[in-house]
Amino acid sequence: DAKTTQPPSMDCAEGRAANLPCNHSTISGNEYVYWYRQIHSQGPQYIIHGLKNNETNEMASLIITEDRKSSTLILPHATLRDTAVYYCIVFNAGGTSYGKLTFGQGTILTVHP
Amino acid sequence: NAGVTQTPKFQVLKTGQSMTLQCAQDMNHEYMSWYRQDPGMGLRLIHYSVGAGITDQGEVPNGYNVSRSTTEDFPLRLLSAAPSQTSVYFCASSNRHEQYFGPGTRLTVT
Predict the structure, then answer these.
(1) Distance between A78 CA and the closest CA of chain B, angstroms
(2) What is the pLDDT of residues B67-100, one digit of tens each?
(3) Strands B76-78 and B64-66, bridge-based pairing
(4) What DSSP line would sit under B50-94, residue for residue?
(5) Contacts of B27 in chain A (CB under 8 A)
(6) Within an 8 Å CB–CB cutoff, is residue A108 touching chain B?
(7) CB pair distance less than 8 Å for A43 and B103
(8) pLDDT per residue over A89-104, tens digit each?
(9) Contact of A48 with B99, CB cutoff 8 Å
(10) Any CB–CB contact under 8 A between A93 and chain B?
């Protein structure tokens, strides 16, 4: 699976958009981009995933560049409860690999009042 | 749905003791995994299963055994606990694109 690079930490003001970048320059054609987050010491929580097109759900938006070498997770109106570690994971969800996520260090997002 | 449940929430073991961490899911997912997370680190995959009767090793399998006799349950056994196994253990089940994690078991080995 392709390796990802994320900034170790970011800050955001409450109510503003949080834009979390991720580089995955070695991504292959059948690999998806996934985002998870971990709040304090809870289990990680799935946020969103995408292959080529931009995606949006009730939690966030995912913007993937045309060459697929980088992506940005957007939390449109960050709240204090969005303070967490955010993990960008590139992964081939085919075959028997469904449960084999590789978590890096992630980005610690701190939302300030 | 309860989702993914793990028991116990906390456990203290002495070196050399054995125990089983329980994990159950009610979402009828074929795929289940065990991860460990050490302080300040990301999660590392211990073992995973792609269905009942099928298991395989992840990144850090030494010292752990698993079995998958039913779709719902995926217990993790520590054979002879060591201080290096002090960690938080997360179980997860997944469909193709979403992995659902349990609340974790915090294990301390003294």
Answers:
(1) 23
(2) 999 999 999 999 999 999 999 999 999 987 889 9
(3) antiparallel
(4) EETTEEEE-SS-TTEEE--SSSSB--EEESS--GGG-EEEEEEEE
(5) none
(6) no
(7) yes
(8) 998 776 655 557 888 8
(9) no
(10) yes
